[in-house]
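pls read this stuff:
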Amino acid sequence: MDVAIEESWKDHLAFEFIKPYFQDLTRFISQEYGAYTCYPPRKEIFNAFKHCRFEDVKVVLIGQDPYHGVGQANGLCFSVKEDIAHPPSLKNIFKEIESDMGIPYPESGNLMRWADQGVLLLNATLTVRAHRAGSHQNKGWETFTDAVIKLISKEKENIVFLLWGGYAKKKVKLIDTAKHHILASGHPSPLSANKGHWFGNKHFSKTNSLLVQAGLQPVLW
């Protein structure tokens, strides 16, 4: 596995890449991509880091697993490639933005425009076998992405962490809540959203308000 990660992250995570768990993970990923169709494409596994330098991070959105359908995953949580139909969770995210911010529902589900503004779109597991949800969980990715969250918590301040759903909320234990902001709600998936746990959370306007208070540019959602 080619750890094609942006230089500013390499400075902080180099020690992680030489740990035994990461070596085991690298072997597993190489075998999986060699034997099966996996997503995202190899060159896009670390896209979340490529498009959001360490020094630029101001918001962290934590997902769980990449999409496992054909052509969907692009290495950013909740994001899909251009001209790909929007999955249900992404539809509900855009509906909440429309309601919260008055921004029209977008044509593109590619969230690279968020990443380029300092939003780290981090899945806990960065790869998946095609049509096999969760197939690369508990192979080492979570250890790596937990280390990323802890690094951001330790080295930065005034980061807005968006924790949507039970899985993401568990990551709060990795975050120093005395110097960062936590916005938690239900997951945008229909199962949660339709029970009233997602719509109306106003996380997008709240995020921007917190960023402005910290003297940072708001995100153009």
